[in-house]
What does this fold into?
Amino acid sequence: MKEEIIIAGFGGQGVLSMGKILAYSAIMQDMEVTWMPSYGPEMRGGTANVCVILSDSKIGSPIVTKYDTAVILNQQSMDKFENSVKPGGLLLYDPSGITRHPQRTDIRIARIPAIEVAASVGNPKVYNMAVLGGFLALKPIVSLENVDRGLGKCIPARYSDLIALNRKAIDEGMKSVLEIK
Amino acid sequence: MAEKILMKGNEAIAISAIRNGVDGYFGYPITPQSEVMETLMKEKPWESTGMVVLQAESETSSINMVYGGASCGKKVMTSSSSPGISLMCEGISYIAGAELPCLIVDVMRGGPGLGTIQPSQSDYTQVVKGGGHGDYRNIVLAPASAQDMYDFVDLGFELAFKYRNPAVILADGIIGQMMEKVELHPVKPRRTDEEILQTAPWATTGKPSSRERNIITSLSLDSDVQEKFNQKLKEKYDLICRNEVRYSEFQTEDAEYLIVAFGCASRICEAVVEELRAEGIKAGLLRPITLFPFPENEIATLAHRVRSIMSIELNLGQMVEDVRLAAAGTSCPVGFYGRQGGNIFTPEEIVAEFKKFNNLK
Amino acid sequence: MNIEDIKKPENIVYKRPALLTDTVMHYCPGCSHGTVHKLLAEVIDEMGIQDRTIGISPVGCSVFAYNYIDIDWQEAAHGRAPALATATKRLCPDKYVFTYQGDGDLASIGTAEIIHACARGENIVVIFINNGIYGMTGGQMAPTTLLGMKTATTPYGRDPKLNGFPLVIADMLAHLDGTAFITRQSVHTAAAARKTKAAIRKAFEYSGKGIGLSFVEIVSTCNSGWKMSPVQANKWMTENMFAKYPIGDIKDVLKK
It folds into this structure.
């Protein structure tokens, strides 16, 4: 099993940390992972993206151009990555702020209303965890037990109350994701 | 079982330095390696191991702080990226000339000049051939993973002290910025003053009446003395070439075509080999782990056997010169493909270039 | 008193400092370096810190200082001695660490290193020999060369329009919070040499207190570079150099 994922959106949406929590959760499941961000000036208030690869065996190239899953959180990223999804792959996106919805007919397309989910949980900062929940509902690669352990590795112990909040956002995200085709 | 932690290659350097008993780190911020010093400052090792961490006013100063610390027999290191390494070359030459051990990490970005901040391998010639003035060589390790970054700190110091020579970890923006699983090995404490006196009797530790004064210098002024010293260095470098060549091979046993790549490019070329094999083309990969000493004998042996060799690099063709020298005694053709400026090649793109070079469909 | 009496320890009134080696100094007759080396050797000996002292020599005439004083030495790249000293002191905090630098080394190519070592308050001693000229390379203009002074690269005299103004670096460094003791001395008379020795001793003592960097500038002669006899050079120094670089303490954080 090998899953190549691009997560792309605005800086501040928690793109990099979502990738990190996903990657750490996979490590808890004894998988191999790579997490490769775009870095540099484009991080400053602009777009941010991270390529996460999860695999049962050693990962060769950490750089890929076609993805099994694209998680898309703004229009620029839609324009950039829609065509990078492998045929039969998954495009998961937050429809808010999207003016041109995906056109592909050879892939799975799903929406996650993550702003609403985060609001319902009571903290806009868990936006990215709502998205992660949506992803895990469609591709349950990592067990929720290992996601909990991954969260524990990424969030300092003194913020342990945040782990429950993040987990709640993941659960709600799982319920709210809508596969449209 | 050892703890496995998800971390960036740059963070792995910092954590490894603390856990491997490094005495001092001196650095200056530059993308894409600033996480090395940031991590060290966050970890505050001066409170746990007593390790000194200092932000210098320039790379020129960082390397000269390393020079001073190494003169005392301490395990000292710095890290930077390409433009900063250029500034350090003066100091590295002095350190090589004074025969001091130290560790330098170069997380390469695109050049020349200010260039880009994206990953590159365009400091190969600079670092592998020396970089500063005078006849000298660095021991050069090329990591291809965050785990290598962690492991090569200890290995780099081991080799640096064994040969009293600067060692360089020649990484790139991908290896520095990418997060991967890193297995932490048992902690090595910093060496005591007593151990330093034993392992580095040449160091400036303060002159007791029981010995002559220790002088760390690279100056001789007498051309005959200097020539003798140069020849002594040559003997040391020859010894390093005999003893310390490290490389790894991927599917070379039955290979008809060889790819040579180091660092992040070798990772990408593993995917290339797999794609070519899936099409029935018997390709194999040799990854030099040490760039100096270079695995020239191993490449020469393969050159007798394979139909061609291609060197794949993120530059305009630097290591390929050493590959050509290694294959010079054979009729094996040597090709090159590279990307520059911080652009990264994809496996598909390399497969296409490989087929073009080898006249394959 | 016969010669054997004279040699008796109780009759000795003057001797070579124990820490000066037998190596014949390469300095020109009349040069200030030899005197400063002697004072430095005396201070280290009298403080009993030979086994705890590490010197950093520069690039310039005093590049071979390590041949003359019997302690452990590091020979720095041009201008970088304060960087070496910084790491040495931080990694070996129980040691006394000093740099010995000329005006080209410290005030020209090494300005960044000295200023930041001062700003960080490194607990080191800096001995700064200011003779207003590059001695080793054959008498070129230094940053401290006086206006109108003739050198190999200012053959018609230093012209501020062409060459800028002399750098009064000790006064600049006194403004930095990390400096503890800054003084300017000379060694052209026995009395001046005694004061310089006291200043060097104070600098070493301060560096052991962890209160910041101590800086001893010694306005010096370079009679070869200045193309004068030693006597003429001393006279020229007192009449010209002292006007721009006045002798005396500039900063002492322990003096109320």
Observations:
- Residues 223-243 of chain B form the longest helix (21 residues).
- The interface with chain A takes residues 4-6, 31-32, 117-118, 173-174, 177-181, 264, 267-268, 270-271, 274, 344, 346-348 of chain B (CB under 8 Å).
